[in-house]
Amino acid sequence: xxxxxxxxxxxxxxxxxxxxxxxxxxxxxxxxxxxxxxxxxxxxxxxxxxxxxxxxxxxxxxxxxxxxxxxxxxxxxxxxxxxxxxxxxxxxxxxxxxxxxxxxxxxxxxxxxxxxxxxxxxxxxxxxxxxxxxxxxxxxxxxxxxxxxxxxxxxxxxxxxxxxxxxxxxxxxxxxxxxxxxxxxx
Length: 186
Known about the structure:
This protein has 186 residues and is of the alpha+beta class. It is 17% helix and 31% strand. The chain has helices at residues 3-17, 44-51, 67-74; strands at residues 41-42, 60-61, 76-80, 98-101, 106-112, 118-120, 127-133, 146-151, 156-165, 169-173, 178-183. The chain is globular and about 40 Å long. The termini are far apart. The relative contact order is 0.24.
């Protein structure tokens, strides 16, 4: 079992143990507002500009109240901020620096090319589909929805998503420790 798969199993156990139901059907993303689809690649300068916001003070909570609102916030390219503590992804280096999520449910791992640009990965370990897994009795409390990814290699993973505004940030809580992401698209 790969590391991200074992983390996913732990999260599902925690999720079910906290009142979620394992049979709650995941739903495809359905943005309720305009979104910017992720580009195939981003210049190194765009990545540096985005990462500069990692050290900005935390902003106000940017809550969502539906699958559509969550989808609208989630779609785009996100770069992982350097972790204050070692992250579960640190061992992957330049091949896993973020994620790109589309409005149609496609997910790609973002990698850093030799020239510093950010590119969408390809292949079994970098391509996935995702869906949003709302509990049957969702309370719209910004942690009720779980994003489930199914990788082309047969593995799976997932996270709870929380957002901040001013500056815009995504907190992906995967059960071990949260990772913070900043958008590559304004």
